[in-house]
Specification:
The chain is of the alpha/beta class. It has helices at about 15-25, 45-55, 70-80, 85-95, 130-135, 155-165, 205-210, 215-220, 250-260, 295-310, 325-335, and strands spanning about 1-5, 30, 40-45, 65-70, 100-105, 120-125, 140, 170-175, 185, 195, 215, 240-245, 265-270, 285, 315-320, 340-344. The protein binds threonylcarbamoyladenylate and magnesium ion (MG). It is found in: Cytoplasm.
């Protein structure tokens, strides 16, 4: 494990970056921070390296990986073409939590990165540690979130260790991640780009740059087949049974009482303001004030992991409005809950 100080100049020359960069070059796995969540990096050109990612995470091999780059020159090397709208998005949001899906250049990356697709997902993370590491390794880096498949994504080095200790060569620890939710994935291969996964950049922000975009049908309708292969798997799930609740706090209090009577331990995922209402529950976490979606996004996965430590049997979560960052938050909450919503 290397601990880095993001604020030093010329980070790229420090052993905390040059050592893990060397490991990446020799096809080992290294976890590193990005502005969204920690990534599990591997040389995207090597079958051997990329195979290790799927093994360490227990990830289905039909779920392609995002390729992380540190310069636009690297993009030219892996993408066959960059349509005008993709270019505009890149100019507006890179480095940042936006992933663009483009036609891939044949024969450059390991086929395992793209799971046999003709397209490649690419992003340039907005984190000095990630950018220095990718630049020092001087190769495109395939990196899914650095969690065991199905678990909440890691927003701190501790989470990576909890899931992957003993399975990877090392972790670059750059502290907690800022955004806390993964990047927005936008398919730019069609005339009208489509959001395949909501994330750190909102639909509203994207449309302000390139005009109307589509939203993959599967994001609106849980039964439709998603275009982003990863979106079909259960995700982000805490160990307890997690339910979202559309209703008043008094209704949630009633649910807590019913479970208590059955001898079950309950948790509530709520707001700072509502925390005090659920004293009957065994664990109440309200990490952000109502409406503070940035704070909620940043603490979402950590909160789901904390419930695991509290050993509750059932968790009730309050819903948030699906606007702005709220769309990505609700997408993750719904997946964590296996789309189970209790309506009052
Ligand atoms: O913020 C992020 O994007 C983080 C950090 C580490 O950069 N990475 C991340 O990777 O979330 P992962 O592997 O957990 O999610 C990648 C998503 C999956 O839903 C996958 O199916 C989709 O991107 N994806 C990758 N390549 C694709 C492609 N060619 N076409 C469509 N979807 C693709
Ligand atoms: Mg993931």
């Amino acid at each position: 494990k290397w601990i880095v100080d993001k604020d030093v100049d010329n980070l790229k020359t420090y052993p905390q970056i040059t050592e893990p960069a060397e490991l990446l070059k020799t096809n080992e796995l290294v976890a590193f921070p990005t502005e969204t969540v920690y990534g599990l990096g591997a040389n995207a050109k090597s079958d051997e390296a990329v195979e290790k990612i799927f093994l360490a995470k227990g990830r289905p091999s039909d779920n392609p990986l995002i390729v992380h780059i540190a310069s636009k020159e690297q993009l030219q090397q892996i993408a066959e073409e960059i349509p005008a709208k993709a270019e505009s998005l890149i100019d507006a949001f890179w480095p940042g939590p936006l992933t663009v899906v483009l036609k891939k250049k044949a024969g450059v990356l390991s086929e395992k990165v793209t799971a046999g697709l003709e397209t490649v997902a690419v992003r340039m993370p907005d984190d000095p540690v990630a950018l220095s590491l990718i630049a020092a390794a001087d190769i495109p880096i395939a990196a899914p979130s650095a969690n065991t498949s199905g678990r909440p994504s890691p927003t701190a080095a501790r989470h990576v260790l909890d899931d992957l200790e003993g399975k990877i060569a090392g972790i670059v620890d750059g502290g907690s991640t800022g955004v806390g939710l993964e990047s927005t994935v936008v398919d730019c291969t069609e005339a009208v780009p489509a959001i395949l996964r909501p994330g750190g950049v909102t639909k509203e922000e994207i449309e302000s740059v390139i005009g109307p975009v589509k939203v993959d049908e599967a994001l609106k309708n849980a039964a439709a087949a998603p275009k982003s292969p990863g979106m079909k798997y259960t995700h982000y799930a805490p160990k307890a049974d997690f339910f979202l609740v559309k209703g008043e706090p008094s209704f949630i209090q009633q649910l807590i009482e019913e479970n208590k009577a059955k001898g079950l331990r309950t948790g509530v995922f709520t707001t700072l303001e509502n925390k005090h209402l659920y004293e009957a529950a065994d664990a109440v976490i309200g990490p952000a004030a109502a409406g503070d979606l940035k704070k909620l996004a940043a603490s979402l996965y950590g909160t789901l992991r904390t419930f695991d430590e509290k050993e509750v049997d059932i968790i009730y979560g309050e819903v948030v409005p699906e606007e702005g960052l709220g769309s990505a938050i609700m997408n993750r909450l719904l997946k964590a809950a296996g789309h189970r919503v209790i309506e009052q």
